[in-house]
Amino acid sequence: MLEGFYEKDLVEKQIDKKIISKLFRYIKPYRLLLAFTIFLLLVTAGLQMA
Q: For the whole model, what pTM was predicted?
């Protein structure tokens, strides 16, 4: 019972890793753009707060 649960947990973690690596591969070219967008959002939010 416990071993089966452990195996299932491992499989789910492997699936998560695959999905995350796929996402990273897809996002990588846009990472600079994403960082710039987040930076702009933070700056505009900071200006609105002040």
A: 0.40
pLDDT recorded at residue 50: 72
Q: Which helix (H) or strand (E) holds 21?
A: helix 2-27
Domain of residue 28: give its range.
Answer: 2-49
Alpha carbon distance 3, 21 (integer Å): 27
Structure tokens at 27: 């996002």
Alpha-carbon gap, residue 37 to 46, rounded angstroms:
14
Distance between CA atoms of residues 8 and 3, nearest Å: 9
Number of independent structural domains in the chain = 1
Residue 10 half-sphere exposure toward CB, CA atoms < 13 A: 6
